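Sample intake sheet
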Amino acid sequence: MSIVKQLAGQTATYGISSILGRLLNYLLVPLYTRVFHTGEYGVVTLLYAYVSFVNIIFIYGIDTAYFRFFQSEKGDSKVYSTGLTSIVISSLVLGLGIVLFSQPIAHAITSDTQDVSHLPAYLCWFAGVLACDAISAMPFARLRQENKARRFAFLRLFNILLNVGLNLFFLVLCPMLTKSGQFSSIISFIYDPSIGVGYVFISNFISSLFTLILLFPELSGFRLRIDAELWKRMMRYSFPLLIGGFAGMINETFDRVLIPILIPDKATAMAQVGIYSACYKLSILMTLFIQTFRYAAEPFFFSHASKENAPKIYAMVMNWFIIVCSVIFLGIMLYMDLVKYFIGPEFRSGLKVVPVLLLANLCLGAYWILSIWFKVTGKTRWGAGFTIFGAIITLLFNFWLIPIMGYMGAAWTTLFCYASIMIVAYLVGQRNYPVPYNLRIFFISILSALLLWWISELLAAYFNYELYLKLVINSFLFLGFLASAWLTGRRKNGYLRESF
């Protein structure tokens, strides 16, 4: 239990930066939609969509390879130097390539009817963002390896706060001062209204650059050198992660691209994209927990990989993970009457996708824990295979279900995809790296949460009581489930301990 408590503490620390970061970034959306015209904001969303894919190329799984080879090479400093040198060189080359070919890239990613006059400049700023963030990936990985969760969280928050502050400065304060004529000489030196939406990317670049500068202590002892043999092994390990990363992006974001393509009525299609995307955000608690858990768990799993009881540790972590995710699922669904106010009234017709997407994210988190076997054993090609398998399911089911069910088809496809790769990863993993996972915890926790939610909905429909009474009854159901899950986990002879 002390091991699980250590992991839980680090997850909480990492979670501070992730949760606050997500919330702060969400607060920028109302700002952008009030400062920019729809076309200008379209440029922002378009570039950030492409960046999610290009970022995979810039990092190419080298940070995960660092965790793997840091353990196998017994902490040899050449692993860090080789990885960092590789990513510095590749980031500079790729960033320079984007700058040199910014004009043709701008035309390639936009239609002939769109104005691309400013897009090459935006791409240049983004080249700097991608390069700085990629180089920062190795120092951040070093912080995680050394269990310096607080410094990791501080630097992440610094990056986000600086980015938000610069956005407010350039997009709110400077235009106000320009309009009023105050400090005109200073403002005219640092602010040009014609740059407009470009200040979003400039702010991002400055915050990424300053974060990299603050990571200089993690560069101590670093020399610009590559161990050729070690680098080849790291690349063989990380290349499947690169392929899997692309396939993973298809699983995560491609449904929103396909909805307007597969639904003939474009007005209805775009409305469905908006409803689906807004309701997707209601699963943020599950997503944030999984993200913060991954920050803490990846170095944790690798550090215990060589221990004799590693499979039992992985099984116990999985047990607690499923219990926590079940609690999150039930909490969101029982309090949906309050949670729904996170989005506007016109979007709430899509609330029916929320339980489906919550279960999908739970399966994705479980898959990530199950995937540890091919990372610690170096068989990362399996990871690429699983993710490509998921991408095929995503494409097939989306093309089948979206024309029939609209955005609900996209939600069910997401669940089918993540549940499928979770099941396949478990079956293959048990043959290659047996872990005594307790399947009863998985099914009992999830089915119990679903049953309590169903009971709550049934009671509300039958008695039709006031909202406050429904919330009181749901609170009793939730607290009962929470207490039961905790007591079961703590009980020495309970089913949670059977994996040991």
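Comment: Confidence is low (pLDDT under 50) at residues 111-115, 492-500. Residues 237-500 form one domain.
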